[in-house]
Amino acid sequence: MTLLPPLRMDSKTENKMPRTSHFKLLLTGILLLLTAGTRIASAQDEQPEESSRPTYVLTESNLPGKTFAVKYDLDVTGQVEERVPDNETRTFKIESMATLKYSDRHLPSAGRNEAALRSIRYFDQHQTDVTIGDRKTELRLPQKNRLFVVEGRNFELLYYPPSALLSANVLEQLRIPFDSLASLGLLPRTAVKQGDNWKPETWALQLLTGVEAILKQECLCTLTKVDGNIAFVKFEGKVSGGRFGAATAVRFIGQYEFDLDRKYLRDLVVSQTENSSISPVSPGLDVAANIHFTRTPQSSHPQLRDKLAASIPLDPDPVRLLLAYTSPWEARLLHTRNWHVIPGKFVLLRLMDSGSLITQGTMMGLPKMEPGKHVPEEQFQKDIVRSLGKKLSKVQSAEEIETTDGRFLYRVIANGNSNGRAMTWIYYLAAHPDGRQVSFVFSTESELMETLNERDIDLIRTIQWPKAETPTRAVSD
Fold it and tell me: Which of 99, 138, 178, 392 has most Cβ atoms within 10 angstroms of its Cβ?
């Protein structure tokens, strides 16, 4: 029985002219002067007309405390590509329909640009129906996970609960293109006239499309017409760059309506295409999406009261930003958003940093032992040596990690080579006092160990089981 997870851009002519020709030339000159004068007068007449064109302010002011009811619909069709063993790929058709109804109560600004976009959001409805190949899945937000703080931070739209912790699975359901809050980044920062153009800031495009690192971007907004109290703005653009380590290209075209009397963006419709390659933590995509949302001012929402809004700090507690994952073996981990959890027979834990994969961890459940017992350290080391085989050069260290709540943590670091690269493997054995236990192995290129910077042990220290005490050490980014 194995106790370890598996590894994984001319003057002569003039004198002969009749005198009448000189008269004609003089007459022609007078006519030209008169015509020019007429043109000058005409241009002078036009100038006041141009300057008298009305200007419009398309900004939402005094947002803090205002509440909007939002209905958001998203339809996606296309293909998804995933990697399978032996570095081969397979493609599936994908269809997805999402219907969201939520209320946003705007919060005070925490800074400039994206940091000015903040709200506390409650979902009255959040349902997504996805079909990938022959698999159909219905995604619904749990009743207890419907209240979130949403804010622009570090070029992304961040979601987190005001209390408790968010799971990675729920977070993926919350991420949507052209989120209503992020769409406020399409509004012009100065007064505009009909026919005027402007370009949104790069941060706005990042929030709207989800592209983390933008290499090229184009986007133009145009005030096309004003009908009564409604301003109509068309926008079109494209963004290319990286997301989760994958090359990504997004194109979009759409229109929004701005209520000039009540000063708010009330309706937006956009069509978007996205093409992205396979990354270490996400499948490849070739999809088209149609998005439509409406915003309606509302006096209040029962879940978004004054006391709750006042309790939201400008800077969230780092603990609130952690994600929680509970494994099939009951062991629970708290992790930063750089870690990506991929469930399966063996749970994969991949750490991304600036678009690069730093390490891959594998978690596996072990048989429960009698209370107070765990797999012996000697046996754990022997299994490591046997598992690595000829890849192993040496066992660098083996030590027990101190805890304060009775959990047993044991770490073994081994060095070696795999496919011509120097590698470091870090193994952990974690056990609860009642005998429940799991094991981990993190595979890292040795030259990336400094970048890893012990984030593996920070993750392992958070492990809990039901009724186990909360870990005493905070998780670092």
Answer: 178
φ/ψ (deg, to 5) at 249: -130, 125
In CATH, what number is assigned to the domain containing residue 358? 3.40.1000.10
Q: Which of 40-49, 80-89, 344-353, 410-419 has the lowest mean pLDDT?
A: 40-49
pLDDT of residue 49: 56
Q: pLDDT band at residue 85, thresholds of 50, 70 and 90? A: confident
- Same structural domain, 150 and 166: yes
Decide if 476 is inside a domain. no
Mean per-residue pLDDT for 306-329?
93
pTM of the full predicted structure?
0.83
In Å, what is the CA distance from 97 to each residue of 134, 137, 138, 295?
16, 11, 10, 20
Measure the CA–CA gap between 321 and 337, rounded to whole angstroms. 8
Residue 3 lies in a domain: no
Structural domain boundaries enclosing 428: 322-460
Beta bridge partners of 438: 365, 430
416 touches 423 (CB < 8 A): yes
Question: Using an 8 Å Cβ cutoff, are 227 and 217 in contact?
Answer: no
List, for residues 99-120, the tens digit of each pLDDT value: 999 999 999 999 999 999 999 9
User: Is residue 32 included in any domain, yes or no?
Assistant: no
| 326 plus 305 within the same structural domain | no
Same-domain pairing of 326 and 309 = no
Measure the CA–CA gap between 79 and 22, rounded to whole angstroms. Answer: 79
Separation CA 205–CA 239 (nearest Å)? 8
Helix (H, G, I), strand (E, B) or coil at 295: strand
Total structural domains in the chain?
A: 2
